[in-house]
Design brief:
Layout lengths: L2 H6 L10 H25 L8 H22 L6 H23 L8 H11 L1
Helix pairs in contact: 2-3, 2-4, 2-5, 3-4, 4-5
Pfam families: Csp
InterPro entries: Csp_YhjQ
Protein name: Four-helix bundle copper-binding protein
Length: about 120
């Protein structure tokens, strides 16, 4: 079931969903998946030792985005300030992952893919 459909069934929402929030949840989920896949691809590179920081940044980004998406999906009660801080942290972690992807050695097979995907998620 899609995010919009699921959240709209929540008793506290009563069919009224916030489009901006839904897009944020979807971006968080997509970012987490992409950063996890990028880290995994880097682990398979023959030059993995040169990609340690990139892997770390991608895994950190994936974790914070996954947690942020889950927090944003909760519609019972509210914790706006913490959610804002999590979204900001997610944004900063993603910016670090993008910067790291751009700095990847061009000799790695995942470098071009990582740059394109990170650019598409912006």
């Amino acid at each position: 079931m899609r995010v919009r459909e699921m959240i709209s069934t929540h008793p506290d929402v009563q069919g009224s969903t916030a489009d901006k929030l839904l897009k944020s949840i979807e971006k968080c989920d997509s970012c987490a998946q992409t950063c996890t896949a990028c880290a995994e691809a880097c682990l398979a590179e023959s030059t993995v030792d040169q990609l340690r920081q990139c892997i770390r940044l991608n895994l950190d980004c994936a974790d914070i985005c996954m947690a942020t998406g889950a927090m944003a999906s909760r519609r019972t009660g509210s914790n706006v300030e913490v959610l804002r801080a999590a979204i900001q942290a997610c944004s900063e972690a993603f910016a670090d992952a993008v910067k790291s992807a751009k700095a990847m050695p061009r000799s790695t097979s995942t470098a071009g893919f990582a740059r394109r995907v990170m650019h598409a998620l912006r």
